[in-house]
Amino acid sequence: MPKQQIDPLFQLIKSISKSEKRNFKLYANRISSDKETKFLQLFDVLDKMDEYNETIILKKAKDIKQSQLPNLKAHLYKQLLTSLRLTQINHDISISIREQIDHAKVLYNKGLYQQSLRILDKTKTLARKNKKNILVYEIIQFEKLIESQYVTKSIENRAEEITREATEISKMMDGIVYFSNMSIRLYGLYLKVGYVRNEKDLLMVKEFFNTNLIPHDIENLSFFEKLYLFQSYVWYYLIIQDFLMCYKYAKKWVDLFLLNPEMINIHMDLYLKGLNNVLVALFYTNHVSNFKKHLRLLRKLEKEDQFKHNSNLNILLHMFLFVHRINRHFMEGTFDKGLHLVPKIESFLEENKMGMDNHRALIFYYKIACLYFGNGQYREAIKYLNRISDVRDTSLRGDIHCFGRILNLISHYELENTELLEYQIRSTYRFLAKMDDLQEVQKYILRFLRKLSSISPDQLKDELIKSRRDLKKWVNDPYEKRAFLYLDLISWLDAKIENRPVQDVIMEKINKNRK
After folding, report:
1. What are the CA-CA distances from residue 76 to residues 69, 82, 420 (Å)?
2. Is 64 helix (H, G, I), strand (E, B) or coil?
3. What is the pLDDT of residue 355?
4. Is the pLDDT of residue 254 over 90?
5. Using one digit for the tens of pLDDT, what is the confidence trace for 194-204?
6. Distance spanning both ends of the chain, measured CA to CA
7. Would you tell me the crossing angle of helices 358-374 and 341-351 to the nearest 10 degrees?
8. Distance of CA 476 to the CA centre of its chain
9. What confidence tens digit (pLDDT) does each residue in 447-493 have?
10. Tens of pLDDT along 363-413?
11. With pLDDT > 70 as the criterion, what percentage of the chain qualifies?
12. How far is CA 40 from CA 66, 118, 150, in A?
């Protein structure tokens, strides 16, 4: 999904809701005089545009000269952010706390030290309650500054108290920073390479994890230290494909919030990501009933009021819901029933294209392609797989790029595009070699597809049976099995051997497992 350059002001305007636009108009009319309404004209013009175009802006906003446009845009951007901040004070505790710190700063600048300290003391209690440790630290540093200028009889005791508080919060922050650094580095590694491909990958990930994990007493860790520690374990076990352990720590992540329910509303984004990882682990362990239970838990959140006020939360929730609703159809083999989600996902991607990154779009394209492939609609599958190929930056989710090309080959084979297939196989081989993702399963599939085009119809079934037997030996291989996480090659071969739709084969296997 190639991205064109987007003007930041235009992007901001397109991200705000109708109620936020209405509040901005009210705010702007209060602060501007009749002579200062040009930035409102600019807002109205940009709001009605589908794409940013300065020529059209100057044509429609006749009072605005080209030389004025940069300053007007900067002014409008600033006023929009100010208005949005006022709108979100009641919905975001961090913004509310920072407002109180700002009020204390105003009083300090006026020399009203005692009043400033009173506000800071109340705000510090609120910040502690909501585990906003960085803000607690900031407030304590501010208190130190004021105490150094406002001398009272109790300064000696106060100095000891504030020093102790500063030391405690500083120590806690060190732990939080350490575990959060570890978590984000492991997550970055997952985004880059996906699952371990070989023993070299495994040793590298294990060495990084074990040498960086400091000794700790879990009972004495703070909420966020535990959270980032659990996150680190989730990314680690996800990368090495130990999905049972991944589920264990993703569940600890979610349970941490359930034990501290007040933190769910404050850090809903982190709670959502925890639930998402529980569902990912359950999908890969094929635990259908538990998966459905947690999916229902995720769907209940749609009714929560805060999703109406926070675009980021709304995008995250619906992204996770769409992905796991597709995964549910994969687990049940109901590819045809899952296709009704495609138009909804397309609308979701279009509505949020300004804030949608390539990583999220790639996941949807691959999932949708697999839905169509499972339903025997190979042309539609190829359409979405081509969207993956069109993304030139392959440094992110290289695994999806690689297996997307393999699924593309199989789809072309199903459509009997024999003339294209030879070229596509060579191209895919070169791509996988360049990406350092040519494992034995991938090599075997490429050789197998090349051979199929020259096999006579009476030999085809025997070749398919042989290939199924060959591939089965890699299903439980610690490194080669990753291929089967992306493509259910065995079910596809079973369908070819038995001359049945892939969906029917998968549903039959699922029903047998349930018994």
Report:
1. 10, 10, 53
2. coil
3. 66
4. yes
5. 788 788 888 98
6. 43
7. 170
8. 29
9. 888 887 777 778 888 888 999 999 998 888 887 887 788 888 898 99
10. 999 999 999 999 999 999 999 999 998 888 777 677 788 889 989 999 998
11. 95
12. 16, 39, 45
Q: Which residues contact 347 (CB under 8 A, 6 or more apart)?
A: none
pLDDT of residue 255: 96
Assigned token pair, 245:
């352990």
Counting every residue written for the chain, the total comes to 515
Torsion of CA 249, 254, 257, 261, to 10 degrees: -150
Tokens of 330: 């994969």
Tokens of 56: 């059209």
Task: Tell me how far apart the alpha carbons of residues 205 and 214 are, in angstroms, rounded to a whole number.
Answer: 16
pLDDT at 94: 92
Of the pLDDT bands very low, low, confident and very high (cuts 50, 70, 90), residue 266 is confident
The answer to whether the beta carbons of residues 288 and 281 sit under 8 Å apart is no
| Residue among 408, 389, 482, 503 at smallest CA distance from 449 | 408
d(CA 437, CA 91): 46
CA–CA gap between residue 488 and residue 497 (Å, rounded): 15
Q: Which residue has the higher pLDDT, 39 or 102?
A: 102
415 contact partners, CB below 8 Å, separation of at least 6: 378, 379, 382
- Give which of 9, 21, 7 is closest to 84, Cα–Cα: 21
The dihedral through the CA atoms of 11, 16, 20, 21 has a sign that is positive
Check if the beta carbon of residue 250 is closer than 8 Å to that of residue 238. Answer: no
- How many other CB atoms are there within 10 angstroms of residue 133's CB atom? 20
C-alpha span between 402 and 486 (Å, rounded): 10
Residue 194 is given by DSSP the state: -
CB contact at 8 A, 476 and 461: no
Separation of alpha carbons 235 and 184, rounded Å: 9
How many Å apart are CA 2 and CA 442, to the nearest integer?
27
| Residue 25 one-letter amino acid | K
Question: Distance between CA 413 and CA 450 in Å, rounded?
Answer: 10
